[in-house]
Amino acid sequence: MAVTEERPLELEASEAPEVVEEPMGVFTRPRGGRGWRSWVTTVDHKKIGVMYGAVALFFLVVGGVEGLLIRVQLATPSSSPDELLMSAETYNQMFTMHAVTMIFLVVMPLAAAFANYLLPLQIGARDVAFPRLNALSFWLFLFGGLFLNSSWLLGGGPDGGWFMYAPNSSVVFSPSHGVDFFALGLIIAGVASLISAINLAITVINMRAPGMTLMKMPMFTWMVLVTQLLLIFALPVITVALFLLMFDRLFGANFFNPSAGGDALLWEHLFWIFGHPEVYIIVLPAFGIVSEVVPTFSRKPIFGYPFMVFSGIAIGFMGWGVWAHHMFASGIGPVSVAAFSFATMFIAVPTGVKILNWLATMYGGRLRFTTPMLFAIGLVAMFTIGGLSGVTHSIAPADTQQTDTYYIVGHFHYVLFGGGVMGLFAGLYFWWPKVFGYKLSEAWGKWNFWVMLIGFNLTFGPMHILGLQGMSRRIATYSEGYGFNFWNMVATIGSFILAVGVLLFFINIWVSALRQRRHPVDVGPDPWDARSLEWMIPSPPPEHNFDEIPTVTELDEFWYRKYGHDEQGRLVRIAKTEDVVQKGDRAGVHLPSPSYWPIVLAFGLPWIAYGLIFNLWFAVFGAACVIAGAFGWAMEPPDDPEAHRHPAGPEADAPEGKSADVEGEGAPVG
Amino acid sequence: MTRQGEMSYPRHKRNRWLALGLGGLVLLLITACSNSGRPLTTLDPQGPESTKIQDLAGPVFIVAGVIFICVEFGVLFIVSRFRRRNTDVDGVDEPEQVHGNFRLEIVWTLIPTLILCGIAVFTAQTIFALEEVQEDALPVEVIGQQWWWEFRYDFDDDGEPDIISANQLVIPAGRQIDLSIRSNDVIHSFWIPALNGKKDAVPGRTHSLLIQANEPGVYEGQCTEFCGISHGYMQMQVRAVPAAEFEAWKQNQLAPPVEPTSSAELAGYEIFKAQCARCHQVNGIDTEAEGYSNTGPTPDPDYGADQVANNAPNLTHLMSRSTFAGSMFDLYADTGDGVCPVVSDSPTAEEQHSAGCTPNLVDLESWLRDPPAMKPMAPDGNRGMPNLGLSEEQVSALIAYLTILE
Amino acid sequence: MAEAAAMPSVTVTASARDAEHRTATGLSNEKLAMWVFLASECLLFGGLISTYLLYKNRPGEVVDLAGNPVKVSELFDIPFTSVSSFVLLMSSMTMVLALAAIRRGDHSRFRLWIVSTAAFGMLFISGQVYEFTAFVREGLGFTSNVSSSAFYTLTGFHGAHVTIGIIMLFSLLALSLRGVLPSRKSETVEIVGLYWHFVDIVWIVIFTVVYLIP
Amino acid sequence: MFTTGSKFFYGLAILGFIAAGFYAVLTASHPEGIWDTLTGEGIIDVLIGPLTLGYKGTVGDQLGFSVLVGFAATCASLGFFHTAFRDADPESVAELVHAETVPVSEPTGLSPWPIVGAFGVAVLLIGWAASEVLFVAGMVALVLVGIEWVVQAWSDRATGDPEVNRTIRNRVMVPIEIPLAIVIGIGVVVLSVSRVLLAVSATAAAIIAIVVATLVLIVAFTLASFPKLRQGIIASALLVAGVIIVGAGIGSALSGERDFETNDSGQEEGMAVVDHVADS
Ligand code: HEA
Ligand code: HEA
Ligand code: CUA
Ligand SMILES: [Cu+2]
Fold it and tell me: Which residues in chain A have Cβ-Cβ distances shorter than 8 Å to C56?
């Protein structure tokens, strides 16, 4: 078939005749535009970042309400099952979905929101390396998340806990479809994360502005890079585990069925080889955010930048060797236990470096307690608590008393919420003016912070006591005689204070947006007098980001365009901010064009998943979407050749003017 | 922001309130944290193993506490000391630009490393110390099932269990017990906080755990690996008794079950063989030989052959225990005059009788009427005890029979 | 760091366009992405291979005619698999030839070698389907026991990778036939080639670990 | 009034509805036998089903019924669009562009679909008699032909300009055709070769694999080193090779596999598995 064409196989080198690359597909190419359509088809990293953020905040409420329901259930003891708010079945689904939602649909995507929005800005790029893949990641994540949550309506959510130990997750012990939703939903979300991780890693590695060497990258960029590398290596492992689980459940294999020769511990190993790096995947972006916020409001450079970078890398690296600390009680043998116990302890060292270096950054500074700074300090204080309780778990014998009690629940909420979520809130307040062009109200922000801090400690602090007093986790209720009543009530009250804290954030958005609409204030490109490149361009940034890609000579380039040192090493201003920032008015920059295909392709996957669960016809439909999406994608040039024939401005690009950063996601590869 | 407001309030008065409030809080904390009335607490070890753990964990808590105080006070100090004053002028009162201090950073890398190295040494010692089996340790098999525990004693070492009991593990005090923990369905975890840490019961594997109670008493436990709907209700007890009493208990258990005599008991016996014996064993009943359908396990089922737990507690000496159904309910009732000891004192059957205690008919009867209403179970999936739809006569006949099984 | 004060001027007009074309590593994004993706694939296959190694000696209830439990490793037809491994290896060679051809701008030979590569790939897949069918006929299905499940999963995942590779090869062919694959875009071919070689190498590992090591 | 295109679609729609009705009635459960139902009491129920689109009454196989009704509805709406916009009607086009003369609509070119369709029918019939696989293949072929033909017929009449018509057709069909062709192509080759390997002994299978591989290599090298070979020769050589592979495949499939030391356990599941793999 191949060789049957005119003049076959002549030896002389010849170019194939160039034909016009005409897009082939049912749809004509979408063109920018406004309204919802511009969001659905966008490939702009900023819009995608905003969508990630919005969806993550939505799921925060979902996961949060699930958490609150858990707390209501546990507020008081019960003596019989029918006194309860939720039956044991519902309760099990509740904490499973709570954890899955919070981890996979809140914290990870919120970090992805920041990474998407900020990486290109911080490294001086026009967009991420593969804008359409970026859109695909987002839609996959969204549809994966909706798919997971649709399980509530289709026979009940997954009920095995977020680590879904086998064989309790097998069909025999979990006959509803919940676990199928878990496996398939996480595979979809995992594909999304993997694509986005590759994309962002390449963006950082390849697309830095001239002069920005690795050791001149902002801390946030660094931590996101480490996170993406962790994801790239961790996700395939959980994918394997989930596939095996799916084969067990849907096709009758016995990978995790001990009575047929399967091994229940295999799942534990596979899950935690992923699961432990995952917790650093959650916290490292937050660390990155804090490393941006603290120097800005201390008006000092980050203390020991190289140490901060290398400790981040060390955390990521060591995170691979400690997974079995989740299995101290599972009978892996004293030698393994000892080895993993030591490995785990020593993670405290690089993490400690980070904490102490933040303190040293603040030391001697002129601290401004803006809301982002408060949240950042909150992270330093709260994460330390979680970290230290983590070290007490790493002492294996002690952990055999602590594991699967509320002491652990206390630990991980301190690191997940006190570390991850606090850091992300710092980021929300910090970059809000950059993204939306107005600041969130400081007054509401401070209320937000303090109520949240108090609520947080009241909720999760008592859990340490409860755990040491012997309260197990994942129990739908407890009886009167155990003496858990008091602290559970405290924790429940705390959780509602915490919820009010979170609510204040949403109120703040509302209030501040309203105020901005009534009395618009121009915050300018650099409202905080900050340090990195994203503050050099207008707020909100123009679609093309930079008028001119800056050439970087310093870590904190933007700062050093504004400030220098005098002889005593004190800060002196050398240029006015207005003179340093860009206007954002350059026209005719060639940008990646929007596309329908990512959403079409992403839309197919959940249907394939439904198909596997319910009826293969759904899968046929899903596969058709995927194939159509992939094919249309491959046939559509990444740049719309028509785009610059539209009224673009004086500086219409020359035909060769495709920007390198968006060229050719090689058609057959994509 | 509220500096003005603060000043307007007399300082000493504020301090008094503060002191009062703090004092109250501390008191509250102490009472709310004490160990008494908390049978599951990890902070009150009652055996050598748990003491070893406590001896290791205690100092670690202290180290962690010291670091905690240092860091948090560091935060507070820095935050109050280096705040930007309102009088500071931007561009003039700016901080010195310190980029780092290599030596300092090395120091605070090394110090935690050294601390942890110290901890690591003791950790390793303890890990291996917890594995040391004593010569005279008594082996007991522990089998986790959805949602109760089975215990098997093999005294003559012939590989066949001599005693099969459930939910309440009776051990001689002062002697080490060498548990071999298995599971019959999903992963469970055996945990008696006062005696040792947890050990998972993983299907397909056997794990060992050593426990020893210094003093006679009842030590409560809880399954701690999530195992399905009734995970929270899957509790167990260890009853440590003096050696002599243990011997008596053993003889009683080895004895054949009490024969039914009265007509009610006999009727119950028949119903039992017809309805219950396909899952429950009372030693000596051979359902197959008697022609009853035996869809349940054979007397000594081949554990692990079938994932589904269609096994049920051995009831031969049911009334010698003091709780039933995963230690959720008392087997003996408080007759109202207050003499009957409460469960946690967990007396033997004889003591119960001498104290004038009667079987807890309320809970037992409703258990027979509708077990899943008392404890979440999934009998359709063959997990847990089904509602057998017994008539009231059948229930009372069964109770009559069951309550003689001492 | 006081010299930081000497800041460069903000606009570097002349070089801006060039700046947009270069990448920091000099490798194109696509190629780098493929490398990173392959790194991630290593862990995917790592997980599958570990699973197989864990389970390979665990016979389940499947018994042969003599009543002995069957393990998948007892059914291997090593000569045949060696041949199909060799076929897959050959395809790597033709892939290299294809890349060389398109770099030279020799489109006809490019198409020829791409088709040959795809043909080898399909031959390999046929071999795999043959092998699977043969095993099933011997009585060893996907769910017969854990060693067979692990085997089918591992080799099945690999087969799916090869199949995707073949589809990519045909897509290259289609592009080439439509004339939209000029030799300055030979990097696309190189990237597909990377994937193809990776899949080959993984097979070598699988072949050694699964078939050759007893 | 009705354009040619719309008539075509209305025809199809009516056919579809009728087929749906029949289908609904025939697949409904008839405990007393179909004839008795149709002549007896049940007739009302059975007829109301399809007439109310399943809202009341009985419909047999829901899925098939919906597919057919969906098909009919689609055709009807397509027909409606054609009427409404009077696409491709030369007169209306002329009217629209205010042309003086009505353009002569070109007769459409040769269409391969009738022939392929006939082939499909043949395969279907053979399959009916001989083997289930062939029957399904015939069905699939017929469905494909149907789709292609419909789109062809529609696009031929979409506008007055044949060039545009072709682009339209390609727009719609190529994204489906190319991937499908590739997948089917791979599937056919893989299946054929694996059937051949299965039919022979284990040693022969290895030998055949070697031979085929060597052949591919030799042919490729010959082509690469004798570039002036006539195109026709290459084309026919490839065609012959393809026919041989597929033919050998079908032949071996029909002649059955070599004997395996079969035992029965696991056989059933196993079959399904292999099918999955072959699809992937
Ligand atoms: C953001 C997520 C996050 C982070 C960052 C961490 C950080 C750590 N975690 Fe945690 N962990 C979780 C999330 C996280 N964890 C979750 C979700 C679980 C439960 C999963 C489940 O079961 O559902 C868990 C469970 C868990 C366990 C298993 C408990 C069990 O189930 O039995 C262990 C055991 O070792 C552990 C240890 C640690 C350690 C040693 C750290 C270290 O990285 C902490 C290091 C930090 C510090 C120590 C503080 C700062 C340091 C200094 C101030 C320097 C001086 C310090 C010393 C010298 C000690 N964690
Ligand atoms: C990042 C992760 C994360 C976060 C943020 C949280 C947040 C919370 N979590 Fe949890 N949690 C986990 C991760 C997380 N959790 C994990 C991994 C587990 C283990 C699960 C397992 O065992 O498998 C767990 C388990 C877990 C348990 C133990 C359950 C058990 O073992 O039985 C409990 C119990 O109290 C709990 C409570 C809470 C509460 C009260 C919050 C609070 O912070 C929630 C705060 C409330 C909100 C954020 C909602 C506020 C908003 C509103 C109400 C406003 C609504 C209105 C509008 C704006 C319209 N979580
Ligand atoms: Cu058994 Cu939890
Ligand atoms: Cu961990």
Answer: none
Q: Which atom of ligand 3 is nearest to the CA of B227?
A: 2
CA–CA gap between residue C33 and residue B3 (Å, rounded) = 56
* Confidence class for position A112, pLDDT limits 50, 70, 90: very high
CATH code: domain C41-53+78-214 is 1.20.120.80
**Among B100, B130, B230, whose Cβ lies nearest the Cβ of A303?**
B100
Do A452 and A375 lie in a common domain?
Answer: yes
Following DSSP, what letter does each residue of B140-200 receive, concatenated? EEEEEETTEEEEEE-SS-SSS-SEEEESEEEEETTS-EEEEEEESSS-EEE--TTT---EE
Residues C41-79: pLDDT tens digits? 999 999 999 999 998 877 666 666 566 677 777 778 888
Q: What is the ipTM of this complex?
A: 0.84
Chain B nearest CA to A245, separation (Å): 15
A425 and A365: one domain?
Answer: yes
Question: A583 and A496: one domain?
Answer: no
| Whether A368 contacts chain B with CB within 8 A | yes
| Number of structural domains in chain A | 2
Name the domain boundary from A542, A574, A595.
A595
For residue A198, give the nearest of C33, C171, C175 by CB distance.
Answer: C33
Mutate which: A5, A6, A7, A9, vs D, most D CBs within 10 A: A9
- In a shared domain, residues A385 and A469: yes
Pick the residue of D164, D189, D231 with the most A CBs within 10 A to test the interface with A by mutation.
D231
- What pLDDT does residue A216 have? 92
Q: Residue A328 and residue A338: Cα distance in Å, rounded?
A: 9
What is the residue with the minimal CA distance to atom 19 of ligand 2? A99
Q: How far is B100 from chain A (nearest CA, A)?
A: 4
**SS (HEC) of A156-171:** CCCCCCCCCCCCCCCC
In the structure, what pLDDT confidence band is assigned to residue C11 with cuts at 50, 70 and 90? very low
* Torsion angles phi and psi, residue B164, rounded to 5: -120, 125
In chain B, the domains with their CATH numbers are: 39-83+97-132 (1.10.287.90), 137-406 (2.60.40.420)
CB A158 within 8 A of CB A182: yes
DSSP assignment, residue C63? B
Give per-residue pLDDT as tens, B227-266. Answer: 999 999 999 999 999 998 899 888 888 888 888 888 889 9
> What is the DSSP code (8-state) at residue B378?
B
pLDDT band at D155 (very low <50, low <70, confident <90, very high): confident
Which CA distances in Å does B233 have to A90, A268, A388, B151? 15, 24, 31, 18
Winning range, highest mean pLDDT, from A500-514, A530-544, D63-77, D213-227: A500-514
Chain C CB contacts of A667 under 8 Å are 171, 175, 188
Residues A477 and A543 in one domain: no
